[in-house]
Write the structure tokens for this entry.
Amino acid sequence: MSLSLRALLVASLCLAVSPAGAFDEKKEPPKKPADVFTNPADAGPDFKIQGEYQGKLGSTSKLGAQVFALGDGKFDVYFLTGGLPGDGWDTKGRTKVAAKTEGDRTSILDKTWSGTIADGVIKGMAGEDAPFELKKVERKSKTLGEKAPGGALILFDGTNADEWKGGKIVEDNLLNCGTDSKKGIGAGKLHVEFRTPFQPKARGQGRGNSGVFVQGVEIQVLDSFALEGKADECGAFYGKRKPDVNMCFPPLSWQTYDVEMKELDGNVVATVWHNGVKVHENFVLKKGPIKPATINLQNHGNPVAYRNIWFVEAK
């Protein structure tokens, strides 16, 4: 790979722009809501293309890619030097290109990058001297499906919503967002699994928005897949601190939060693992001492679902 191409990979950055709408004084019929899917079988061809890919650039360099669906066969593709977030990405090289489906062909639309996305493979050229081939992968958190240890407080196991105020079960065994735990939790470790919907035409805070409140502070839940990982995106303490790395998996993937809370130097602090990767360490939630507080699973108008929620009190 040439030095100029390597420099291009490391220097490339992107800015996510959210569209804005305005009230139409002519009182035209309301626009159809953005497509919302909770079942992969119904999500359409764009869902099959979006997701994570990894492989090599040239003969030796590891390369990752995240394909972000925009709706109507349009995509943003982020090429990541070193691999995927939490699995080799150097956190510097991040190149954004566009892709579009026309007929049965999805092509990358860029002057430097060229190629196609088909049958779970991205294949093409970066510049004139670096071929790449990346295969689609479906990563899972190492704590996904983790069973509660003996003595844990079982907050939701799919059988009933008795531990939640107005809790509602959806899809037979999932907990709907928009509810508070009946019991409060203090020092210890909380395990939560969540799933954001696939909303390819939505943007920003309208895309799979919810939140897990611990000790009154929100850990953001959002479909922030492939985005920068800002302080209002998934894995962040909302408006307070961005995650060390954006570990958000693609929409409709089951994801995990593992949150350890304790007292430290007179403060209540939390360490958070998102999909098994530490994204916050000893973040100060408030002044101590730590006292039991209920958990809120925020309803922000999107069908975010939860499962396998439990808490182990610190000894």
